[in-house]
Design a protein that fits this description.
By secondary structure, this protein is an all-alpha fold. The protein contains 15 helices and no strands.
Length: 301
């Protein structure tokens, strides 16, 4: 009798592995190798000099000790948390409101949706440069408008005050990310059968009850995609912050992304830069795993 262990492989099994092999090879080359290389580099004395000699000796946990002892690391971690949470909350909340608004068909709704996509299509550096001019304390259009409307009596230091700069960067990032949230959530709303909402209305559910009891639960898989992708793209943002504040003033907008850039490309300490990069990857992985598991548990219930 032929057992399962000695049973010959079917031709279909080989074909499956051949189809999977290119994707697996791509993941190993372009994701696996850089990740492993970054981890190894965090345990090496990898500086400007060793970059050219190719001989970077291992220095154990010296890079990790130096980064953890750096006062900017704790501040950058806190700023990254505030920046990410504030951006996601604003982008998702406004994006959801716009998706629900445009779900009701009315004249020129398609044109208005197209116009709202413009912030998403503009390169991040260009958007940051434009907003830096708009938010300029002395010559910015925003301050001139606020003073003309008598909303403020003096110019607001949007990007030059440590108390306001991080909020300004968050608001600009919300403006950039709203179209992505709106488009994905609008597509999800289109897939929900209208009969379910109509049945809820017949049962006496108001607009809010209909949304939270019918629409939002059915939209949960789409919400998961939006939040996870939004987190992954927000937590590592670098170019927008560099264009707006360059991490200042007084390091008030310093994040893990900007700290990695400064350590690696300004101070040329690639080993410490790799440490911060590993922390950034770890934070992203923990969020993705925790959120996906919590969402899966919610669906199972």
């Amino acid at each position: 009798m032929t057992t399962a262990a000695t049973a010959p492989r079917r031709p279909g099994d080989l074909a499956k592995w051949l189809f999977v092999a290119p994707a697996a090879l791509y993941m190993l080359l372009f994701f696996g190798y850089p990740l492993v290389r970054n981890v190894v580099m965090s345990f090496q004395d990898y500086t400007f000099a060793t970059y050219f000699t190719g001989e970077a000796p291992f220095n154990g946990l010296e890079n990790w000790r130096a980064v953890l002892a750096n006062e900017l690391f704790g501040a950058s971690l806190w700023h990254t948390l505030l920046f990410t949470v504030g951006s996601l909350a604003g982008q998702f909340g406004i994006g959801m409101a716009l998706a629900v608004f445009f779900h009701r068909r009315f004249p020129l709704s398609g044109l208005m949706r197209s116009l709202l996509l413009l912030p998403w299509l503009i390169p991040m550096v260009v958007a940051g440069t434009v907003w830096r001019r708009i938010l300029d304390q002395e010559t910015g259009v925003l301050n001139e408008a606020l003073q003309a409307l008598r909303v403020t009596s003096a110019a607001v230091p949007w990007l030059s005050s440590p108390d306001v700069a991080l909020l300004s960067v968050v608001l600009v990032n919300i403006w950039i990310g709203i179209p992505f949230n709106m488009v994905i959530l609008y597509g999800g709303l289109q897939e929900i059968p209208a009969e379910l909402r109509e049945a809820a209305v017949l049962d006496g559910a108001g607009p809010l009850r209909n949304f939270f009891s019918v629409t939002l639960p059915l939209l949960r898989p789409v919400v998961t995609v939006v939040l996870v992708l939004g987190f992954m793209s927000t937590v590592k943002i670098l170019d927008l912050i560099l264009a707006l504040t360059n991490g200042g003033p007084a390091h008030s907008t310093e994040t893990l992304g900007t700290l990695t850039y400064q350590l690696s490309f300004l101070q040329l300490d690639f080993g410490q830069g790799a440490v911060v990069g590993n922390v950034l990857i770890l934070v992203s992985m923990v969020f993705a795993v925790v959120y996906l598991r919590a969402n899966r548990g919610g669906v199972a219930r």
